[in-house]
Amino acid sequence: MIPIVCIVGASDSGKTTLLERLIPELTRRGYRIGTVKHDVHGFQMDQEGKDTWRHSRAGAQTIAIASPRGVASIRKTSDELPLEEVVARYFWEEDLVLAEGFKRSRFPKIEVFRSEVEPSPLCGPGDNRIALVGDETQGLEIPRFSFDQIRELADFIEERYLKDRKSHPVLVQIDGKRLPMNAFVQDFFVGCILGMLSRLRGWRKPRSLLIHIRLGEDP
To answer: Which GO MF terms are attached to this record (predicted)?
Structure first.
């Protein structure tokens, strides 16, 4: 599974600002970074009156808008999806996903802390906090970085989650959950699929290939 690191902290502590500085540093090193923002109050990405808003209002379950420079999609859900399922479904090519929020998740967390915003850090012993960015605190037993130590923070993340990570060419998902494959199985899988498709009219060897198979009816 793609590594997930949560950036947590009190409101106005600087989580988004930290991400704005950290993402370019990791991208400069050649890593593909994805982000997820947690919004406990719900969100509205579309503008009232726009065509896609009208599609949604008419009852469309999934709405997407595509352009030559990007694709955006909104999918309605009956319940909040777990963070790991969001990443498994929507992040295929990234080396790391940085999630803003998700303090209650099981994933490793980097807390952003400013004493003028919150009297003490939010994370406790059982919150899987791996580092703190911001003001010094007493009795801290994890690495601490100042807001200016972006390069050092990127070094920490790279060493812990990215340095020895190998890019796998095959991703298979079953009901939104990633199916692990070793290198031999991946090579066998790719060989079989390409061998069959190469016999079809209009075939040309692609850079990437997406196959979606729906079995039976949705529950």
So the answer is: GTP binding
pTM for the predicted model, two decimal places: 0.71
Angle of CA points 70, 74, 75, to nearest 5°: 135
**Counting Cβ atoms within 10 Å, is residue 90 exposed (0-12), middle (13-18) or buried (19+)?**
middle
CATH number of 4-43+79-162: 3.40.50.300
Tokens of 176: 């939104």
Where are the CATH 3.40.50.300 domain residues in the chain?
A: 4-43+79-162
* Residue 111 contacts residue 9 (beta carbons within 8 Å): yes
> DSSP letters of 107-138?
S-EEEEE-TTT-SS-S--TTS-EEEEEES--T
The yes-or-no verdict on residue 108 having pLDDT over 70 is: yes
Cβ contact 35:100 at 8 Å = yes
